Amino acid sequence: MEAVNVRLRDNKTISRASIINFLETMREARVLKGLEKTGKGGHHWIYSPAMTEAEFKEFVAKTILGSLMRDFPEETAEAVKKI
Length: 83
Description:
The protein is of the alpha+beta class. Helix content is 58%, strand content 19%. The model has no long low-confidence stretch (mean pLDDT 93).
């Protein structure tokens, strides 16, 4: 959280809860792997990549194209033909 807040601009910050929610969403989408640990502070997760960079790029492309094909099938097919 601290590293993210250092990189944000215009004195903006992001909460710990927002970071945790994002990481959990990425774990549920299988972009990240999570290992649950128990320690001094209770239960916590250790996150690591679940795919290579190339696999991640393919995942993003498929996710975006899948969404576009679902919502705008004709327009998306036409745009892909023009590429």
